[in-house]
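Contributing: when you submit paired examples, paste them exactly as shown. First protein:
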Amino acid sequence: MGSTGIAFADESLINGLNPAGLARINATRFSGAFEHCRFSSKDAISSGLYSFSRLLGISIAIPISIQNGIVISGEAAPYSSVDYSIISNDYDTILQSSRTQNIYGSGGLSRLSMGLSFSPIKALNLGFRLNYIYGRIRQYRNTSYQSSSYLQSRFDVSRYYSGVTYSIGLIYEDLKNLMNISILNGVSIGMTFTTKSKLSVDLEKTYFNIAHDGGDSIIIQHGKNTLPYNLGFGISYLYKEKYRVLSDIWLENWKNSHFYEDIHSEFRNAYRTSLGMEIIPSRNATSLLGKYYYRFGIGYYSTYYSFQGTGINESFIAMGLGIPVAPETRLHIGLQISTRGTTSNNLQKDTIFRISIAISGSELWFQRFEED
C-alpha cells in the first residue's frame, strides 16, 4: 500500500513504521523481504539504465502478554544505500590537460532495532523502539590525463557511521466511542516520532599517485553528522471488514542538519504523503482469487535534496498482492513505479521500477497446553 500504515495495528503485520502497531500480534511472527530495483535515468543530453537487488529486512515479533498488548520485536533493515557510477570528461585548467574521471559510490547505512508495545487500555496502543544506525559508504575517483606528463591518480574516501535514535508511537482505535460520533466507526489514528541523532563519523581519505613522483597519502578524521528528527501522522479506516483505507504524512527537519564536512548540496525540510487501500478477502472465500489480498497506493515525496535552487521530488504508484500459502503464512508481491527529479537546470530525471517479494508467517511460542 505504498509503505503506508502509521495508524495500522493488526495481528498479521509486524509494523515497521510505528512500534505501537505491534500490540495486536497474538502469535510469534516472522517476516522477510527482498527488492529488485531498475533505474532509467536521463539528463538533457544522455540516458542510462542500471539495476540492483537488496534485502529489505528481516523481523520477528513475540507476544509476551496478549491481553495487555505487550509485544517485543527485533528488526534488521537497510536505512539508506549508495550505488552509482559516473564517467566525466573535461579539461583541467591547472594542469593544462584533458582528463577522464571515473567516479563510483557504494555502501550504505543499516538499522538494527528493538521494539516494545503495550496497551494500557483496550483502544490505546503505545510503542517504543531503539534504533542503532551503522554502516560504511565508499567513494572512489580514478583520474587519467591525456598528457603523459601526469600519472593516473586515485582518490578513495571511506566513511563509517554509527549512532542511536529512539522512536515512540501511539495508535488509538476507537474514535467512535471516544467522540461519540457514529460515522467514525472503524477509524483509527496514529502518530510516531523519531529523535534526531548525532552520528559518529570515522573518515579516511587515501590519495594514490597524486604527486608527480607517484607518492601516496592517507588522511584520517573524526567528526559528527546530525540526522534530523522525523514526525509522522496516520489515519486508517476499515469498512465492513472488507476495505481498508490508510493515509500517512511524514515530516523531516533536514534544513537544520549539521555536517562536519563541507557538503556541497542544498538541504531543505522534507515531507512525504501517501494513500493506500487494501481489499481483504472473505473468510468464507472458495475461489483462489477470492482468497487474495489486493493493495493499491499512491504517494508524493518532497525530498531533502535541492540543487541550483531546484527541489528534487518523487511521485509513485504502487500495487500488490497478498497470497495465502499456508493457514498462517502469506506471500506478498508488490510493484512500485515512480519518477524522481527533473531534466531542467542540467539535472537528472529517474524512472524507477521496484519489485518486492516478502514472506510472513506465525507460530505459537511460549504457550502452555493442558495434558490429558
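Second protein:
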Amino acid sequence: MNVQIKTKASRPMCASGALQKIYANVSNVDEVVTDRFLCSGEDMSLEAHTCKGESGGSLFVERRQRHFQVGVISWGTYDPCARHNKNDDGEVIRDRPSKESKPRDFYISLFQVQDWLRKYLDNSLTFIPMQ
C-alpha cells in the first residue's frame, strides 16, 4: 500500500477529517487525534486506505533503499472493504471512496512511543538510526 503521511502544514487539515461520521459529536479534534498519531488521507487510489480488521499492520517508509517501520495502523474513517466483495481468486476488492468522504487513516507513530517501547521491549528490539 502506498500512502502519504501528512506533515507540518497539511497535518491539521488531515486530522480534522477524524471529525467525520464516527467522531461527529467531538468538537475538538485533539481529543481523538493526539500527537502520537500519523495521519494519511484524501488519496483516492484503491490501495491507499486500510480495511477494518487491518489494525496493527505496519507502516514503512523507504529511505536510501532501506525500509523503516514508522507506524502501526490504528483506525480510519473509511472502510474500503465494508461490502465484502471478492474477485474470482477470493481476494477482497477494495471500494474507491467518494470524493465527498475525504477518508483518513491514523497510525500510532513509533517515534512518539519509543520510550514506552524501550521500557517494556528493550531486550527484544533493535533500534537503527534512520539516516
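If you have annotations for the second protein, write them as plain sentences, like these:
The chain has one domain: 5-122.
The chain is about 10% helix and 25% strand.
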